[in-house]
């Protein structure tokens, strides 16, 4: 990568050139984003994960640009058409679109109207006309009539010349640049329902006759309209006013006052726009807006996923998990403190069997037998009825009873991971195990499930799947390494996301652990087959070993800094364990005395912070949550009710909240706070406990409107604020239904 690219990245990200060059050097050596941001602060100038990832992604984009540039230069060179001027233009192109515009005239084409006209020998006539001089048009065109070349008339000759001119106009680099800007800045999305499909397309009702500027269309509406078009319910156009577009072309191409040649060029311009340039620009704009919409949707998805993965864990406690149901009963499992399956059973406390006495006795017996400390109940079918039943049993007060979001549990239960863990168990039992483990440690359990199936995304199947996967993988890796992983209890799936490992080394660690027993030190990790020095360097700081001989093995202090910490302790006549337990001792350490060429204050400050809370889980403390008793179904709701709820999903237009009636309600952006906000993330997070007011209930369409305002009804009757566009004021039906459709169990 040339120096100009490094400079460009530094300018775009507003950081120093050295930070860019040094970070890319680390990335090229195989270092991961979490490792670089956590353990190489002196090298990067304390760049965080977001900045390091941005450098990585932009560097890759520029490398892809260079790769394409090289291929284009080679292609044109082989054609014998590469001039110094063209080469300079190609080498100075800063975007892929400009690069492709320059290549367009030299790009191998299928036979077009222009190539056919050239084969008929009409290019000289086209050149003459394109000069727009005053000529005897008919006389010049007559010269090209030839039965042999199938040019039978003056009009045939002129038509062929116009076809060639149209292609030249289409390949005009500066015109394409300005037309691209016109489409984006002045273009509009125009969506209409396909006649006769009004009933089938009811979920896209908001877009039956919809128009909005391309440049301001939010991602969820772009994706909703595209999905409606893909499903053959909507017709979607994305162009500027045709008069403006052709006017731009006339101003750039026409050089003289009206004459017969100019009139021919005008005809060619109009043909070019309708046949070549408009379809080309529309395709580009669609790709551009799709990419932008994908980026926005993926950003929302990854932020929701981060919040869900970092939800507060209950911790290592004995847990009973219940996957509730009616006809098929409630699958009930008991798990040990490390998530190991102790027992499983089925109880039938609900309709139609209603074997309440038997079910109650079973639960009480299991609670006592396995010393159960918490009961996790999945929030699916029959959840509220099952919760009410369990709470009526008079269990010991120390036993926590709580609902758990079971989105994705059924996906896990049918997965290869679940079959590998529990080959002899029924799918429903595996699902119950997943529910219980999710209460104990959401992060450790959710990494086993395809992130797209967890139910926190919007249009996750419509966005660029490669970009989505990369972003989700980054998010999961960030969360896993941010929390740290206990190597002696972690699953293969969890270990896979540890910096420097991956699936093969994760499996090797599990195999080694099975054959040799628990790891006794971080140093022992090097004995794992194929786990070399580089992988150890990347992974060691994020792996934890409880009760290890070396006290720092349970902390986030990297083994490469053990000697430094030991020298700190020695200087005070103490042990490392003394430093970890005594704030007074730590306060005596003068950090600047330990600064060296490789260790600066950022790393030293991180070490001191870690010594004060070695291995502490950075996630919040678990809090029990309960839904409103007696409100179990939508039919129990009444407008004006104030209810507790949990935020399950955040979108650009609001937040979905579970209020315990088997159907999430929507708090629109305009009802998330008493003040004006631009982004729901300003006031809510996934898994946040909130109080909402019921505003609207539509049982037929399973829609619930909620508000988090202190006086939500005060604004009724007033005109809509700038915050609400018409579609958003209606709750953006298409987007909501698509979202709800995507929420898997």
Automatic annotation (TrEMBL):
SMART domains hit by this protein: S1 (SM00316), YqgFc (SM00732)
GO biological process: nucleobase-containing compound metabolic process; translation
Biased amino acid composition, Basic and acidic residues: 712-725
GO molecular function terms listed in the Swiss-Prot or TrEMBL record: mRNA binding; structural constituent of ribosome
Gene3D superfamilies named among the record's database cross-references: Nucleic acid-binding proteins (2.40.50.140), RuvA domain 2-like (1.10.10.650), Tex N-terminal region-like (1.10.3500.10), Tex RuvX-like domain-like (1.10.150.310), YqgF/RNase H-like domain (3.30.420.140)
Chain positions covered by the region annotation Disordered: 710-729
Residue stretches making up the S1 motif domain: 640-709
A GO cellular-component term linked to this record: cytoplasm
Record InterPro entries: HHH_9 (IPR041692), NA-bd_OB-fold (IPR012340), Ribos_protein_bS1-like (IPR050437), RNaseH-like_sf (IPR012337), RuvA_2-like (IPR010994), S1_domain (IPR003029), S1_Tex (IPR044146), Tex-like_central_region (IPR055179)
SUPFAM superfamilies, sorted: Nucleic acid-binding proteins, Ribonuclease H-like, RuvA domain 2-like, Tex N-terminal region-like
Matching Pfam families: HHH_3, HHH_9, S1, Tex_central_region, Tex_N, Tex_YqgF
Name by which UniProt lists this protein: S1 motif domain-containing protein
């Amino acid at each position: 990568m040339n120096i100009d690219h490094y400079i460009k990245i530094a300018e775009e990200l507003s950081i120093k050139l050295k930070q860019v060059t040094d970070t890319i050097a680390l990335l090229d050596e195989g270092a991961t984003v979490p490792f670089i941001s956590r353990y190489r602060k002196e090298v990067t100038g304390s760049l965080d994960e977001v900045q390091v990832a941005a450098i990585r992604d932009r560097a890759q984009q520029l490398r892809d640009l260079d790769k394409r540039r090289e291929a284009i230069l080679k292609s044109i060179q082989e054609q014998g058409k590469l001039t110094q001027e063209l080469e300079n233009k190609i080498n100075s192109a800063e975007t892929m679109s400009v690069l492709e515009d320059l290549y367009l005239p030299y790009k191998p084409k299928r036979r077009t109207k222009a190539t056919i006209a050239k084969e008929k020998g009409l290019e000289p006539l086209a050149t003459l006309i394109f000069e727009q001089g005053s000529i005897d048009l008919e006389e010049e065109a007559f010269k090209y009539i030839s039965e042999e070349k199938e040019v039978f008339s003056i009009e045939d000759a002129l038509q062929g010349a116009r076809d060639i001119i149209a292609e030249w106009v289409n390949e005009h680099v500066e015109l394409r640049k300005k037309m691209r800007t016109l489409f984006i800045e002045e273009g509009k999305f125009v969506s209409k329902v396909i006649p006769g499909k009004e009933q089938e397309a009811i979920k896209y009702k908001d877009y039956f006759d919809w128009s909005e500027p391309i440049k301001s269309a939010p991602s969820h509406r772009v994706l909703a309209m595209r999905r409606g078009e893909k499903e053959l319910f909507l017709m979607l156009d994305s162009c500027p006013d045709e008069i403006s577009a052709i006017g731009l072309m006339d101003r750039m191409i026409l050089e003289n006052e009206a004459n017969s040649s100019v009139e021919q060029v005008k005809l060619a311009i109009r043909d070019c726009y309708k046949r070549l340039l408009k379809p080309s620009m529309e395709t580009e704009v669609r790709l551009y807006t799709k990419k932008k919409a994908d980026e926005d949707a993926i950003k929302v998805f990854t932020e929701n996923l981060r919040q869900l993965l970092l939800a507060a864990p209950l911790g290592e406690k004995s847990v009973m998990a219940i996957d509730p149901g009616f006809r098929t009963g409630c699958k009930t499992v008991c798990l040990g403190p490390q998530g190991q399956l102790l027992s499983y059973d089925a109880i039938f406390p609900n309709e139609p069997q209603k074997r309440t006495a038997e079910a109650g006795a079973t639960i009480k017996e299991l609670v006592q037998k396995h010393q159960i400390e918490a009961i996790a109940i999945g929030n699916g079918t029959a959840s509220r009825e099952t919760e009410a039943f369990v709470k009526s049993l008079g269990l010991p007060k120390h036993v926590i009873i709580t609902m758990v979001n079971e989105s994705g549990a059924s996906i896990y239960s049918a997965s290869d991971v679940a079959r590998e863990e529990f080959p002899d168990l029924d799918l429903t039992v595996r699902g119950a195990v997943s529910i219980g483990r999710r209460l104990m440690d959401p992060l450790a359990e959710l990494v086993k499930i395809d992130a797209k199936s967890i139910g926190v995304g919007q249009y996750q199947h419509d966005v660029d799947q490669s970009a989505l996967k990369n972003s989700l993988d980054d998010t999961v890796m960030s969360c896993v390494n941010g929390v740290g992983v206990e190597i002696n209890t972690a699953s293969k799936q969890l270990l896979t996301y540890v910096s420097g490992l991956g699936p093969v080394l994760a499996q090797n660690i599990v195999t080694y652990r099975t054959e040799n027993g628990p790891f006794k030190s971080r140093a022992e990790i090097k004995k794992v087959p194929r786990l070399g020095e580089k992988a150890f360097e990347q992974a060691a700081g994020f792996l934890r070993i409880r009760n290890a001989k070396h006290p720092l093995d349970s902390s986030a202090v990297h083994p490469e800094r053990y000697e430094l910490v030991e020298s700190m302790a020695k200087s005070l006549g103490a042990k490392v364990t003394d430093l970890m337990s005594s704030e007074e001792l730590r306060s005596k350490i003068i950090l600047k005395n330990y600064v060296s060429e490789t260790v600066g204050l950022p790393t030293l400050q991180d070490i001191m912070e870690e010594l004060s809370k070695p291995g502490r889980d950075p996630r919040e403390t678990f809090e029990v949550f309960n839904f409103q008793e007696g409100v179990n179904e939508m039919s129990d709701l009444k407008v004006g009710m104030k209810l507790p709820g949990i935020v399950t999903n955040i979108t650009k237009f609001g937040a979905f909240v579970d209020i315990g009636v088997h159907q999430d309600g929507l708090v629109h952006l305009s009802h998330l706070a008493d003040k004006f906000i631009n982004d729901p993330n300003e006031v809510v997070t996934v898994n946040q406990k909130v109080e909402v007011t019921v505003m609207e209930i539509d049982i037929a369409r399973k829609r619930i409107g909620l508000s988090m305002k202190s006086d939500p009804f005060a604004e009724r009757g007033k005109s809509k604020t700038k915050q609400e566009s018409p579609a958003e004021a209606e709750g953006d039906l298409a987007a909501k239904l698509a979202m709800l459709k995507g929420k898997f169990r």
